[in-house]
Design goal:
The chain folds into two domains: about 1-240, P-loop containing nucleotide triphosphate hydrolases (Rossmann fold, 3-Layer(aba) Sandwich); about 240-274, no CATH class. It contains eleven helices and ten strands. The strands form two sheets. The protein has a six-stranded mixed beta sheet, with helices on both faces. Strands 2-1-4-5 form a four-stranded antiparallel beta sheet, covered by helices on one side. With about 270 residues, it is α/β, with parallel strands linked by helices. Helix 3 packs parallel to helix 5.
Length: about 270
């Protein structure tokens, strides 16, 4: 079932130097429960597109629909934002309370949810991101990865159907990146629709479908195997490929006959063992 639909979306930023087209005739569809990743170089438009999914930005022209709700209709904004949660790059900018469980409860309290229901949702959200043991901690005492998991818990507690992650691991160390990506994969397994904006190709490769953006347009879409099958084309855009894909490509150039659909270290190991 389709949960997000983007039709001929155009977004223009007005700057002191004039107008800048950030999105130019973007069209895409995302199904409920799907895990998609959007990649592209800096300035390609991927973060601008992400902000349209929960109506933080309004189209200059074209349409964005979330469960058939038009994001340009002000009457729909509250419902859309209750359906679509967002997790941004810097977790410190998303922390609003002095205690972890209070931070997760913040949005629910603003909605006037009954205290017993808030308690239930907060406990469930913290359990989902494996942060129950830290519910009484001060967020300032947590690692970057743990802070991001608290931000994710806040979105889960709001019972959103879709979570948009805009470069959520960009400021984290490898351990923090692993924690957050594991949480994202768990949420997808639990049925949430996941939209991951990332510049880490290994993260993008975890998705079911990848969209490549360049110059405000979607220039290619497909499964990770399809997207990364042409290393030369990906690098021409200015992007990298996952390390196993890069190594497989170099081995092919050395004369080894390897399949084109290698994506992971396990894929490469299995192919070399044959």
């Amino acid at each position: 079932m389709e949960i997000i639909r983007v039709e001929n979306l155009k977004h223009i930023y007005k700057t002191a130097a004039g107008e800048k087209i950030a999105l130019d005739d973007v069209n895409l569809k995302i199904s409920a429960g799907e895990f998609i990743s959007i990649i592209g170089t800096n300035g390609s438009g991927k973060s601008t597109l992400a902000k349209h999914f929960n109506a933080l930005l309004q189209p200059s022209s074209g349409k964005v629909f979330v469960e058939n709700l038009d994001t340009a209709d002000e009457k729909n904004l509250w419902e859309i934002r209750s359906k679509v949660g967002m997790v941004f790059q810097n977790p410190d900018n998303e922390i609003v309370a002095a205690i972890v469980e209070d931070d997760v409860a913040f949005g629910l309290e603003n909605l006037g949810i009954e205290p017993s229901e808030i308690r239930r949702r907060v406990d469930l959200a913290l359990d989902t991101v494996n942060m129950t043991d830290y519910k009484k901690f001060a967020p300032s005492k947590l690692s970057g990865g743990q802070k991001q998991r608290i931000a994710i818990a806040g979105a889960i507690a709001m019972q959103t159907k879709i979570i948009v992650f805009d470069e959520p691991t960009a400021m984290l160390d490898p351990q923090g990146r692993h924690e957050v990506l594991s949480t994202i994969k768990k949420l997808h397994e639990n049925g949430l629709t996941i939209i991951l904006i990332t510049h880490f190709m290994e993260e993008a490769a975890q998705a079911e479908k990848i969209f490549i953006m360049d110059g405000g347009k979607i220039i290619k879409q497909g499964t990770p195997q399809e997207i990364f099958s042409d290393v030369k084309e990906i690098k021409k855009i200015g992007l990298d490929v996952p390390a196993p894909v890069e190594l497989a490509d170099r081995l092919r150039k050395k004369g080894l006959k390897l399949p084109k659909n290698i994506l992971t270290a396990e894929d490469l190991s299995n192919a070399l063992a044959k």
